[in-house]
Give the backbone structure.
Amino acid sequence: MRAATIISTTLLAAAMSACSPEPAEETPAPAPEAAEEPPADDAMTQRVADMRAQWNVPTEPFHIIDNIYYVGTQGLGSYLFTTDEGHILLDGALEESVPHIKANIEQLGFELADVKYLLNSHAHFDHSAGLAQLKAESGAQMVAMEGDVSALEGGFYLGSPRIAAFNAPPVKVDRIVQDGDTVELGGQVLIAHHTPGHSRGCTSWGTTASAYGDNYEVLVFCSASVAANRLVGTPQYEDIVDDYRFTFEKAKGMSVHIPLAPHPEFFNLLEKRDANAADDSENRFIDPTAFAEYIAAQESAFEAALEQQIEATGAEIATP
Ligand SMILES: [Zn+2]
């Protein structure tokens, strides 16, 4: 108990100051009883456990277009961009998803050991918790947007570091990117589009695929759902509301022919897979209207959630 107190106090202090990774030299004063353990919310812990099991149901890997493959589980996306010089893997799902991702990569005839870069849509455990293990097994370089680095390396959900159910194994970031930076390997170029709000460093990775004698804009859109995020009162992080609105405006200016996401149901990917012709002659992943429709729906949902949180907390927020 005593050790747990010290660890949680140190972690909290580190998360709040976000500067020195050094442990405090002096033994911190014991935290008051109420602050000693993360908030006991058995119902939430159980809900997260149930979600994890549902998300982690394995599924067959599948070809999307060009050199792009889905290697995730039924509920959590993970994308493989293959090249002759090695591969890029986007999103690690849960720790327990790693064996499925590895098996899926192998089933497609590729090797996890040939993954050179690991990318992340955002630092929430359902997309980041598998990264540490994937990095250890592949030796790949971890690339992440600046705003999510502290959460990835600290293994917490930014703004909720004491909710144990939201934690993830920490993963060291080897390269920090900013909006517009690219990751390139063997002719494959992925552009990091900063689309913050859902997480501070939320990153939508874009590329151009060539197939059927044409080019298609592919975007693995991070997410713009409110989910567990506090928007008002003590927000999840500073400027979160402005960030969501920035992302909606930015997304409206993007042309996307093939929308993909960390949660495949955002764009009905498994249904599209099942509807695709076996001979690849028809590709349902090419869906040029879906992204704009999705963003419009997410924007309405965000504004409704914001209003609801303002009402519930009595907080005020400056209108743009
Ligand atoms: Zn998330």
Observations:
- Confidence is low (pLDDT under 50) at residues 1-37.
- Residues 122, 124, 198, 223, 227 surround zinc ion (CB under 6 Å).
